[in-house]
Amino acid sequence: MHLPHPSPRSLPLLYRIGGLLLVAALLLLGVIGLILPVIPGIVFLFLALYVLTRLSRRVAAYAHSKPWFRQYLRHLHLAKGLSLGARIRYGALLTARGIVDGLGSAWNWLRAVGSRGMRR
């Protein structure tokens, strides 16, 4: 499947400022999500990067060179043909998957820390 490689065009200053504010909010939610396992931080960090690719040609070139970014773009591209209700369900499922993966990672980390503490 061929994914579109957007080349950001020059946007008006108001749109660029709004985009940067959105990126800052998404980054904040992403960092909070990395600390609290209930919020899927990776999803918000990806969305921040996605918005940045729309604002900067350099960020777009960097992001599109990474296979993991192209994989997530594929998910977004596939969701374009869905109805609004299906998109919401798809987003909820991806969010739930992120939460479960985050909880699994936290559990594995806690087990690793616990086993190191018991060896001492």
Which spans of ≥5 residues are poorly predicted at pLDDT below 50?
Answer: none
Helices, by number, come to 5
Percent of sequence in beta strands? under 5%
Radius of gyration: 17 Å
The ordered string of helix (H) and strand (E) elements is HHHHH
The domain tally reads 1
Overall pLDDT: 80
How far apart are the termini? 52 Å
The structure class reads mainly alpha
Shape: globular
Q: What is the strand tally?
A: 0
* Biggest pleated sheet: none
Range of helix content: over 70%
Write the layout of secondary structure elements.
Layout: H1 13-35, H2 41-55, H3 57-64, H4 67-79, H5 84-119
Architecture overview:
This protein is mostly helical. The chain has one domain. It contains 5 helices and no strands. It has helices spanning 13-35, 41-55, 57-64, 67-79, 84-119. Helix 1 (13-35) packs antiparallel against helix 2 and helix 2 (41-55) packs across helix 3 (57-64). The model has no long low-confidence stretch (mean pLDDT 80).
Summarize the structure.
This protein is mainly α. The protein has helices spanning 13-35, 41-55, 57-64, 67-79, 84-119. 11% of the residues are buried.
